[in-house]
Amino acid sequence: MTDIADRAAEREAEFIGDALEEQHRHDPAAGKTVADSATHCAGCGQPICEGRRLAVPGVILCFDCQDEANWLEARARANGRTQ
Fold it and tell me: Among 34, 61, 67, 75, which is 20 to 30 Å from 28 by CA?
C-alpha cells in the first residue's frame, strides 16, 4: 500500500509529463533538425545565416522577417484580432 507522499510524488510526475507533452504539441521546432530549415527566407528571399539555421531548427524566416512577423502578431493580439 502506498502512502500519501508516494501518491503525491506520482501525481507530480504525471503533471510534469502532461505539461511537457503540451509544450511539445505547441513547439513548432519539436522534432526538427537543421536539415528542416530553409536556406532562404520565405518572406524576403534572402539567405538565412547558418547560425540562425543551427539555433532555430525548422526556421523559414530570416531574423528581420521573423522580427516583423512577431511585431505584427503582437499588434494583432493587442487589438483583439487573434486568440
Answer: 75
Residue 18 has φ and ψ, to the nearest 5°, of -65, -40
CB atoms within 10 A of CB 61: 19
**pLDDT attached to residue 8:** 87
pLDDT per residue over 15-46, tens digit each? 888 777 776 666 666 666 667 788 999 999 99
DSSP string over 4-62: HHHHHHHHHHHHHHHHHHHHHHH-TTTT--GGGS-SB-TTT-PBPPHHHHHHSTT--S-
Q: Angle CA(44)–CA(27)–CA(29) in degrees, nearest 5?
A: 55
